[in-house]
User: Fold D-inositol 3-phosphate glycosyltransferase from Branchiibius hedensis.
Amino acid sequence: MISYYLPSTSKMGIGYQVDYLATELTRRGHTVDVFSPCPPVPGASYGHRQIRLTGSLRTFRFATRLRREDFTGYDVVHAHGDDYWMWRRRVPSHVRTLHGSCFDEALTISGFKEKARMIALGGSEWLASLVADHTVTVAPEAQRWYPWVHQVIPNGVDFELFAPHADLHARREDRPTALFVGTWHGRKRGADLVAAFHQRVRTEVPDAQLWLVCDDAPEHLPPGVTAFGRIPNTELADLYQRAWVFVLPSDYEGFGIPYAEAMAAGAAVVATPNEGARFVTDDGRYGRLAALSDISTPILALLLDHEGRDRLSREAHEWAHRFSLASVADQYESLYAARHD
Assistant:
């Protein structure tokens, strides 16, 4: 596998997906090595090949360095990015996963420099989709930029970690509790969520609390808001299982694995109608979608309607099984076995 990101040093969701999938495939008896500029993940069961980089433009230089790596001993190269210079055939099967579209992200990101960077990365994704023998997207929306890519394999949730209890509500907090996983600044909109929670949700539900898994939150937060910083996955799963509602008002998600993790754990999902949220919630059938300006309305509705919230969480939990890590690994195993003709 190829990934610029790994959980050892990066909080990017792609890195976690690579770690989860590599671990699951290793558990199934495959030999897996991950090529990455990140150091190895402590305790990882799969192999690791670190490609050390210095200076600027590291993602582009990582792609250039990959041209010099010897992959001839492998049956499959599965790239999660940065394989767009790998035109020469090296292995029997070259798979590429597109984790959303940088073209889509360029439409929402602020700043000329960042927009230009996203457009350049979108061009690299376009090239990569032509280089690989098999290209898949994690959600169908990205196919509008790559209409020749027809297969969708979603990101995967470890149900054994996020949904270990048969009773989805056995560990819920006594107090009305909302959970956010993301960043204070940028497209995740953590600061906007806290403002909406403080101005309206706490006004109507005074004992409500908001938990932030967010390592860039300010030191001083409004009453009822607690920041946990960066925490291990076991602690994150615990928060999902205790929260009543999960809220991520992101302006862009290529998939949005936190939505699927929350659904697996039985927390009712509230999101803005970004591409990933629409796909994971089936256009709001298994979650509540609202504009950022009105995000507090579905939060309040779910905190106050116990029966409706429980019904939504049960239905969403069943729907989320299509995003289980086991199902995702099954689909990739079938794809790996489909040798290039």
